[in-house]
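Work Package 3 (structural annotation) set out to generate three-dimensional models for the target panel prioritized at the project kickoff. During this period the team completed the workflow that converts sequence records into discrete structure tokens, so that structures can be stored uniformly alongside our sequence database. As a representative example, we reproduce one entry of 387 residues exactly as it appears in the project archive.
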Amino acid sequence: MGNSVAGVNQEILKWARERAGYTLSEVAQKMNKDAAVIEAWESGKAAPTYPQLEKLAYQLYKRPVALFFFPEPPDEIDPGRSFRTLPDSEIDKFAPDTRYALRQALALQMALYELTDGRNPSGKKIFRDIQITPDTPFDWAATAVREYLGVSLEAQLSWRNVQEALTVWRQVVQDSGIFVFKRAFKQKGISGFCLYDDEFPIIYLNNGTAVSRQIFTLFHELAHLLLRTNGVTQVNMEYIDSLHRPARDIELFCNRFAAEFLVPSSHFDTRLSDNTPINDQWIRNIAKAYSVSREVILRRLLDKGLVTSEYYRTKINEWYSETSKKGGSGGNYYATQITYLGDKFLNIAFDKYYSGRASIEQIADYLDMKVPTVMELEARMMQRVVG
């Protein structure tokens, strides 16, 4: 066995584990060691070998090895302080992959600042132009945002499927100054999150959830950004009932805004009558017409008193069980990365490279990729433009 590494900061070992969301026993199991060994590393009584440190850094904590030799932990986002509308009990449930996604989002936000010299290039900035609070009537807010984005309900109803709907919604939101990224979260109960910023607010969607669910998440998080707060959308939102004001008011507003925006009450009411058969097939058909999830339609019915809270919770749990059993396919790596990062962000990155203001190595750093991968990604994007 190799020699222990000298100079490892035990404080950062512990900090990195806690920030990654692992317990001592979980790390011990993954390292095939006793928990006492990991505890000894974190107390300074012992130190890992270099291969062990690499495994901790790259496979578990998703950190550069050099970080563990710093004199103190870096100052970075703390979920407990950043997502104030979530109770501590929910934040404690964040999986290591979810915590890593938060760091990825921050890295992308910082990359945007460097790629654009600190100035959002969008001609419109909805997060500055529309001012709302939790006391703003959510139907007024939904109408104002729809007008700002320039997508009529008639256009929405003409879309062929939810994939077309998500593509259009993502584009118009990005055209309004908010960058939308995607990735597949291992924690299926997290639908997405947003990080507010005065210049580069971003939304992160879980590509592992149903497309219709991503659409609802997009507008739930947009509401958070218009309220100038960070937010997390979870599949199970029962925790909202336990929140105190103002956090509860914010979450309720975001849910009501997203539902009203996607399925305006005035139009939805025309589809209801005294003999409307409220069943799975009717809900499915209406959801398809609006290109939304069944949950959005069920929420509309609950708000109108046409279904009970018990029925709502039962159906939501049933539908979640159905979708969580479905597996995803790997697909093409480069096509996936283009989808995750989005054309807008990639065009900004490559424009800086084409103009000679950044090297390919710098672009690779912004994209968190190796240089050959970036070059192939750039070639694939060029093929799309030519094609």
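The longest strand covers residues 190-195.
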